[in-house]
Specification:
7-stranded antiparallel β-sheet; single chain; 27% strand; alpha+beta; 22% helix; two-stranded antiparallel sheet
Length: 160
């Protein structure tokens, strides 16, 4: 049997390593098919305001929401929430942070009231240009003590 020199063995090992790595590198550097979709997913953060607390089924009385508007620069007031919206899917979450300093919110915090949206609410003035309609989904939204320092709600928003 022939003896190989150390130099030839070294070259052979490097050649095998290169072949092995170059075969695997095809898979490592291929872009996934949905790369463009991933890059298009952007979140817009802006605000939502409403006139009063109240439920549609109770003539906008009691604890809930019966109207809303989206806005970039809402008046600083106790009836404003933050909207995180994925402008690709149209799915958003409205976060309402309660503050006991404001009338009505103190009882909701102490009693951990659910927030009622009796029926889907369509926003009459849409500022996001990617969509024609923004809708607050009907539902009973549980009080969440981990929102802000005193609790609040997350409400489902849908744009289409």
């Amino acid at each position: 049997m022939m003896k190989m020199s150390n130099n030839k063995i070294s070259k052979l090992i490097w050649m095998l390593i290169l072949i092995f790595v170059s075969c695997d590198s095809e898979n490592l550097f291929q872009e996934p098919n949905n790369t463009n979709q991933k890059l298009q997913k952007r979140w817009k953060i802006y605000h939502v305001e409403w006139d009063e607390w109240g439920r549609k089924s109770r003539n906008c009385g009691s604890w809930g929401l019966c109207n809303f508007r989206d806005c970039w620069f809402c008046d600083p007031q106790p009836l404003v929430g933050d909207l995180n919206l994925n402008d690709t899917t149209g799915i958003g979450i409205l976060t309402i942070e309660l503050n006991s300093a404001y009338n009505g919110q103190d009882s909701a915090i102490i009693n951990q009231w659910n927030l009622y949206v009796d029926e889907d609410i369509i926003n009459p003035t849409l500022i996001i240009q990617e969509f024609d309609t923004i809708k607050m989904k009907a539902g009973v939204y549980q009080f969440l003590s981990n929102i802000g320092s005193q609790g609040g709600y997350t409400v489902d928003i849908l744009c289409y």
